[in-house]
Design goal:
Strand content: 15-25%
Number of strands: 24
Structural class: alpha+beta
Largest sheet: 11 strands, mixed
Distance between the termini: 36 Å
Shape: elongated
Number of helices: 28
Helix content: 40-55%
């Protein structure tokens, strides 16, 4: 029986090549899109699950709470927290502390080996048991002893290849501006779907990790590390809360009460960190689960469009297969046998489409930028992943069942007499169903196109919206070590000798980077000081406002001629003034010594995803460097921002490299443009737009395949009518418009429905932005216009030959 079904199916496919090609092409593209998005979703939904103990690993997050209701959420906790917790709580199996030396938005730290120097972002310090808690594929070295020596370092395979090629680097040394370290272990590059990418793991052992019992209670309030605990599986937040309540009362309450503040802790399961809260300070980049749901919906919609194509074409050709059904019934075939025959054809075509779709996916990932659009890195292999493979096979069979269900039940229900005599009374209800299916296709296509345009409008709005400061022709340079930072005045004087350099400033961070927060006693309108949380940027000379183009609204700028500014001056933004309710902000006390000397217009020192928060620009000189240890001096880091002329950019960059090289000949200079740093804040959104554009095109193309097939069938069925109309004087364009008119009506209806649905969906997406471009109706008009144009072109392409044909041939046709 199975052999018979296959023979009949292959014979039908061979006789109706166009019909087969359209069906296989549409379904294969739909399956390919689902497969690509499925691989992406698998990657995203298995974040950090390559660690064998991921179900037992939790990260501690914390909240600083001020008495006036202010809150600061932190991904970091004290370096002293985990050891004390482990000592007093038997349920804690193990812990690991990881201290991030270089954040993802830093230019990176230089690492040297001989004459080779490269900049690395993912550099951390970790406890020596990190390889016992987290899973790393070890290439060289002993994970149990790798980080015991304070001067040891474990590196990734990519790191090792950069400096030593294929050579075993164990025992080789590399150095940073802080220390020289011996490579003790090489691990395979971590997968992309981990929240804690690392290329260098330095040892936590050494004087810096030792706890001073006399400072323990104060140290517990100082966030420094990512703290991971190994706990029993399914450990409850309630149990952890009780543990931390007891801990707080014993170790932290006294300091908290004295400082009029408190701290709360909670657990983040390792697998949930990437899609956890996005407002934790000093955290790794987090994801947005809404994009996952959106990606899944796009894939399902495209597959639905492909299924609709199959159903439309199958029902449209039912009249041609009517005689076949009638003969089968006369010869004794049961209805269920016919249903199985038609369902089998659909499933067979779906399996063929699966094979073609897998080829398409491989070609797309190898030869197109699609891999980069979905995040880059190595995607999961659907051949070696049993769950993925069986899910893919199940989706394909389900696609075949859904595509073939309606045609199978419809065709098998035709009576033998009606089928054999080609009675067409049943065509009316069939036509209505086809119109509904085509309408669904058009709604999806218009919605996807309009949604893509709206996302483009939003990103253009963000790109064009004034940031409140200037980013063009601003070059950022990282200064490492107090010795170099103390020479910033010399660097500035040398830089300004070039006519291509218009200004230079020194600061702790720049807009677009991770900006720190602090709690400070601030004077209110009544003259009383209240503790407040706010963001702050340390400024180290008096050109910060000028170089970045910040607008001073009240008061004055920092001045090197006023020596007290280094310890007593602060400039705040409008958001700070509004938060404090100041009527006259100038002269208000900031802490014990400082006073507000100026107010700047609000500027976006964070991304457009959040509103402008209260900010203080704190003038801070570097004279304290003389009071800190050599190790702390070596770890000190600052940024310089250089405003260059737009006329001679290459000469200006060469001048900056020359000056920095003269002042600091032992290190390589890395330059970054500020606008590039700001652009990185929206990489994910741009990737989503790129994906949406690609899949919108595919969605429209699949719809066109269906329209092409349907127009071929309709043109064939109405060939006599077309012949009569031509004899009576109808022009080619009149005939084409007659054939296109039903589709045009459906497009107009689809435009209204798609606009409403897309409006709701995009409004939810825009809620993730603090500043919104709004929903422009032009997007819906463009979506409808594109679909109308494509549909018209498709129908013209198919029907033009029939419209031009000699009407005599059509009228002779029986």
């Amino acid at each position: 029986m199975l052999t018979y079904f296959i023979k009949v199916t292959l014979r039908k496919m061979y006789r109706e090549k166009l019909y087969t090609i359209i069906n296989v092409a549409g379904l294969s593209l739909g399956i390919a899109c689902c497969l690509i998005l499925g691989l992406f979703l698998h990657n995203e939904l298995t974040y950090d699950q390559h660690h064998k103990k991921y179900k037992n690993i939790y990260r501690i997050a914390a909240s600083d709470l001020s008495p006036n209701g202010g809150e600061r959420k932190l991904a970091l906790t004290s370096h002293a927290l985990a050891p004390v917790l482990k000592k007093e709580n038997a349920e804690i199996i193990d812990y690991v502390r990881i201290y991030p030396i270089s954040l993802s938005d830093d230019p990176g730290i230089p690492v040297y080996s001989g004459d080779d120097v490269f900049f690395w972002n993912d550099v951390c310090i970790a406890d020596d048991n990190v390889f016992e808690v987290f899973t790393y594929d070890i290439i060289y070295g002993n994970p149990k002893t790798a980080l015991v020596d304070p001067n040891s370092v474990a590196v990734s395979e990519s790191f090792a290849r950069k400096y030593f090629g294929d050579e075993n680097p164990i025992g080789k040394t590399v150095r940073t501006d802080i220390a020289t370290m011996k490579i003790s272990l090489v691990f395979a590059d971590l997968p992309e779907n981990t929240h804690l990418k690392t290329d260098m793991l330095l040892s936590y052992n050494g004087p810096a990790s030792e706890m001073n019992p006399s400072n323990l209670h104060r140290d517990l309030w100082q966030p420094a590390d990512y703290t991971y605990l190994v706990l029993p599986e399914n450990y409850s937040q309630a149990s952890f809360k009780k543990m931390m309540d007891d801990f707080y009362l014993k170790y932290m309450k006294e300091i908290g009460d004295a400082d009029n503040m408190s701290m709360a802790f909670w657990l983040q399961p390792l697998k949930d960190i990437h899609y956890g809260p996005d407002d934790l300070l000093i955290d790794r980049p987090t994801g947005n689960a809404l994009y996952l749901y959106g990606s899944a919906m796009i894939g399902l919609l495209i597959l639905l469009v492909a299924c609709i194509n199959y159903m439309n074409l199958a029902t449209a050709r039912s009249l041609k297969r009517g005689r076949e059904v009638g003969i089968h019934k006369v010869l004794g075939s049961k209805k269920m046998q016919l249903i199985l025959q038609f369902m089998g054809e659909s499933i067979f075509i779906s399996l063929l489409a699966l094979f073609v779709g897998m080829i398409i996916v491989e070609l797309l990932l190898i030869f197109t930028p699609v891999n980069g659009l979905i995040g880059g890195g190595q995607l999961a292999d659907y051949i070696t992943e049993p769950i993925l493979f069986w899910c893919l096979l199940g989706v394909t069979i389900l696609t075949g069942v859904l595509s073939g269900a309606y045609p199978a039940f419809y065709l098998s229900s035709i009576s033998p007499i009606a089928a054999i005599t080609s009675i067409k009374k049943a065509a009316t209800s069939q036509l209505k169903m086809r119109q509904v299916l085509v309408l669904a296709q058009l709604i999806i296509s218009i919605g996807v196109i309009a949604g893509t345009f709206l996302m483009i409008f939003q990103m253009r709005y963000i790109t064009d919206k004034p940031l409140g400061y200037d980013i063009k022709n601003r070059v950022v340079v990282n200064l490492q070590g107090a010795d170099l930072i103390e020479k910033h005045r010399l660097i500035k004087s040398k830089l300004l000798k070039s006519p291509n350099v218009r200004g230079m400033t020194v600061c702790h961070v720049i807009p677009g980077m991770t900006v720190g927060t602090i709690m400070q006693e601030i004077e209110n309108n009544e003259g009383l000081k209240t503790p407040q949380y706010f963001y702050f940027i340390l400024v180290h000379n008096d050109d910060y406002l000028n170089v970045l183009g910040l607008k001073l609204l009240e008061g004055r700028d920092f001045s090197s001629e006023i020596t007290s500014d280094a310890h007593e001056a602060v400039i705040v933004n409008e958001a700070m003034v509004k938060k404090m309710g100041w009527e006259n902000p100038l002269g208000k006390a900031y802490g014990d010594e400082r006073k507000v000397v100026g107010v700047v217009r609000d500027f976006h020192f964070q991304s457009m995803h959040s509103t402008v928060k209260p900010l203080a620009l704190v003038r801070h000189d570097n004279d304290y460097f003389a009071e800190i240890s050599d190790e702390e001096r070596a770890q000190a880091r600052r940024k310089i921002v250089v405003h260059i002329s737009e006329q001679n950019i290459p000469e200006a960059l060469d001048h900056i490299r020359t000056v920095i090289g003269q002042v600091d000949p032992g290190h390589t200079v890395k330059l970054e443009f500020l606008d590039d740093i700001i652009d990185r804040l929206y990489v994910f959104e741009k990737r989503v737009i790129g994906l949406a554009g690609v899949f919108a095109g595919i969605c429209v193309f699949i719809s066109c395949l269906g329209l092409f097939g349907l127009s071929a069938f309709v043109t064939e069925q109405r060939s006599k009518e077309i012949g009569v109309r031509k004899v009576l004087g109808a022009s080619i364009m009149q005939i084409i418009f007659m054939l296109f008119k039903p589709t045009l009506i459906l497009v107009l209806i689809a435009s209204v429905v798609a606009s409403a649905v897309t409006y709701i969906a995009i409004d939810g997406w825009l809620s993730g932005f603090a500043y919104r471009a709004g929903i422009n109706p032009v997007a819906f008009l463009l979506g409808a216009a594109i679909v109308v144009a494509v549909a018209f072109s498709t129908i013209v392409l198919q029907s033009l030959k029939t419209a031009r044909a000699n009407p005599v041939k059509a009228l002779r046709y029986e």
